[in-house]
Amino acid sequence: MSGPDAARSTGARGGWREGHCVVAPDKFKGSLTAPQVAAHIAAGLRRVRPDVPVVTAPVADGGDGTVDAVVESGFVRFQTSVAGPLGTPVAASFAMRGEAAVIELAEASGLRRLPVRPTFQTSLTATSYGTGQLIRAAAARGARSVVLGLGGSACTDGGVGMMQALGVRFLDDRDRELPHGGAALTRLARIDTGDMVRVPVIVASDVDNPLLGPRGAAQVYGPQKGARPGDVDELEWGLARLASIVERDLGADVADRPGAGAAGGVGYAALAFLGATVRPGIELILELMSFAEQVEGARLVITGEGSLDAQTLHGKAPVGVARVAAAAAVPVVAVAGQRSLSGEQLRRADIERAYALTDVEPDPEVCMAQAGPLLERLAGEIAGAWLGASAHA
């Protein structure tokens, strides 16, 4: 059964399933954060169906917005000053609940934290040091485990900066500490882990790239961070040197593991130094949010992201949300800025229907600028189609 009739349930009053509506979108990148998207959708729903309880549960997949998502679900936000990707201090947040911490690399070491546009110089010198400082800050507040969301990084330093902040020394052949950035790794001679802060880490990432080679951190993602062909070669050489010295000094051979290439090799450092496990980002974040409990008894789940396209089908947030809802036999519809997926592709991903801003406003620039009001308009259409007539109408 598909379409609005899928929301019906026999025995429910008026033919509609009793219960609430869960609004669980990811961000609309460059336009609205996930909490903002959820708020606009909720406003549109309530305008048409004020009698239907609405639960907002903005989500993320480990990249930008991960801390915001778990804070909305009950984690407590903490802010501290850390080094940005070029060493300039930035105010960055992490979240905690009990002894569990959620840290988002993009908060400290993301492209959005660069004080300038990415260039070849920044690609060679950007560091993950601030991410390690966030881990130390969480540990100082009592964290005994860390979920580390990887995505949107500015660095290709193999996670060396993160580990320097956690007390590991990376030394050249004169026992001098290496400076920050992936280019410096070509001079690595030995590693000293004697003062390392050890915190159990689970990496939240959908990236399955290895550290090295044609699918590795430097060759795939380096150009996106400003690296020219020669710079990519230098970064690759540095990462290969790091992997060789880590295997010699630590006995860790994890460069080929899926996820080692995430965030410029920060995934590799988490695996090699911290013994991390890697899990799909959205799956892990939904567990932290107790999302399955929020869906239980719902009549409809609304998810979405800026663009519903082929990448969505490879473990992005809307598909993760839809899987949880499908397990509870709750229908799912999606909203997006634009979509290129067919109805059949959506249904195979457990999404009954998708609504795009471009359906009501063909100009993409207007969609970006007026995303909030357009989302409320679409939410009103969804309420009318999927939630039935208002008891107050």
Give a brief rundown of this model.
GO terms for molecular function: glycerate kinase activity. With 393 residues, the chain is an alpha/beta fold.
Record the SSE blueprint.
Blueprint: E1 21-25, H1 34-48, E2 54-56, H2 66-72, E3 76-83, E4 89-97, E5 100-104, H3 105-109, H4 120-125, H5 129-140, E6 145-149, H6 160-165, E7 169-171, E8 190-192, E9 201-204, H7 217-221, H8 229-250, H9 266-274, E10 277-279, H10 281-288, H11 291-295, E11 300-308, H12 317-327, E12 332-339, H13 343-348, E13 353-356, H14 357-360, H15 364-369, H16 371-386
Parallel strand pairs: 1-2, 1-11, 5-6, 6-9, 9-10, 11-12, 12-13
Antiparallel strand pairs: 3-4, 4-5, 7-8
Helix pairs in contact: 1-16
What this model shows, in words?
By secondary structure, this protein is an alpha/beta fold. It folds into two domains: about 5-60 and about 290-385, Glycerate kinase, domain 1 (Rossmann fold), CATH 3.40.50; about 65-280, Alpha-Beta Complex (Glycerate kinase, domain 2), CATH 3.90.1510.10. Helices cover about 35% and strands about 20% of the residues. The chain has 16 helices and 13 strands. It has helices at about 35-50, 65-70, 105-110, 120-125, 130-140, 160-165, 215-220, 230-250, 265-275, 280-290, 290-295, 315-325, 345-350, 355-360, 365-370, 370-385, and strands spanning about 20-25, 55, 75-85, 90-95, 100-105, 145-150, 170, 190, 200-205, 275-280, 300-310, 330-340, 355. A six-stranded mixed sheet has the order 3-4-5-6-9-10, with helices on both faces. Strands 2-1-11-12-13 form a five-stranded parallel sheet. A two-stranded antiparallel sheet has the order 7-8. Helix 1 crosses helix 16 (about 370-385). The longest helix is centred in the middle third of the chain and has 22 residues, at about 230-250. It is elongated and about 75 Å long. Residues about 1-15 have low confidence and may be disordered.
